[in-house]
Amino acid sequence: AQTTQTNWGELIRAAATNASLKHTYWPEIERVVAEQIRSARMGLGKGAWQLFVEDGEMKMYRREVEEDGLVVDPLKATHQVKGITGRELCHYFFYPEYRYDWEGTLETMNVVDKIAEDTIVFHQIHKRIWPAAQRDATFWSHLTHVPDEENKSEDSPHIWATVNSSVELPSHPPNGGKQVRIYLTIILMGQTIISPAAKGRELKRDDITCKITYCAVVNPGGWAPSSVLRAVYKREYPKFLKRFTAYVIEKTKNLPIKL
Ligand code: 6CM
Predict the structure, then answer these.
(1) By alpha-carbon position, which residue is closest to atom 5 of ligand 1?
(2) What is the pLDDT of residues 91-119, one digit of tens each?
């Protein structure tokens, strides 16, 4: 009941930098980020989600959806990882300097526009998957944090999120090169849970768990055989989430905890 009353737009605005708030993209960023946070927090709720990968704490669900004959299956994944915070998770997902370290589907990544410390515009070319044409994407990426509804006390860590959403760039028209443009809306969200045992003493990495939600809708933009695409997703999404979280654990293990 709480969730329906939350004004996510207001919370997202409160976390944003001035440079982001002033940008022409802002109304769209606020709308999409609010919508993504709302639906990521909703859990599986209604809708025909089918579990298609289960590996330890990691669970991945999809809904089979096609638009104009193209597979656009929404994906929703949940995971739990010890030793990292939601803020750290989203930091490594958002900032471009780490992307080649963990993004296995990437051929090239370019920062088209660094709008602000919390909003960056990217052009990415992804690896070609036989027998389809190579894909590229242009999207803005926004890093935000909102108070945790379940943990309302003053000093409890915020929920952090990075949202990526396609945007048209006159400098990079779709299907201009040899790639087919894909359209994506993606959220990675992390909620930090602190073990009650840590109360009153210095926090250790052993005391923290990150509850992760990752949702993705990718429209392949042009011909791609459904069965191949679903097989690719079944292989690549778990690979991404395992590899990426292992990467964040490795990067942060000797660093001070950033809540
Ligand atoms: O969210 C992820 N990565 C982000 C940073 O790179 C970003 C990227 C999203 C692009 C995901 C699409 C890649 C798949 C390209 C293949 C398209 C179809 C080819 C036709 C096959 C027959 O949000 C992690 C993304 C993990 C991808 C599985």
Answers:
(1) 103
(2) 999 999 999 999 999 999 999 999 999 99
Q: What is the spatial distance between Cα 109 and Cα 253, in angstroms, rounded to a whole number? A: 27
Q: Which numbered atom of ligand 1 lies nearest the CA of 126?
A: 15
The pair of three-digit structure tokens given for residue 33, joined into one six-digit string: 């980020």
Chain-centroid distance, C-alpha 197: 30
48 vs 72: CA distance, rounded Å? 15
Residue with tokens 């690896």: 127
Contact 97, 109 (CB under 8 A): no
pTM for this one? 0.96
Q: Is the pLDDT of residue 223 over 50?
A: yes
Q: Rounded CA gap, 72 and 229, in Å?
A: 9
155 Cα–ligand 1 center, Å = 36
Find tokens 């990691």 and name the residue: 58
Give tens-digit pLDDT for 124-149.
999 999 889 999 999 999 999 999 98
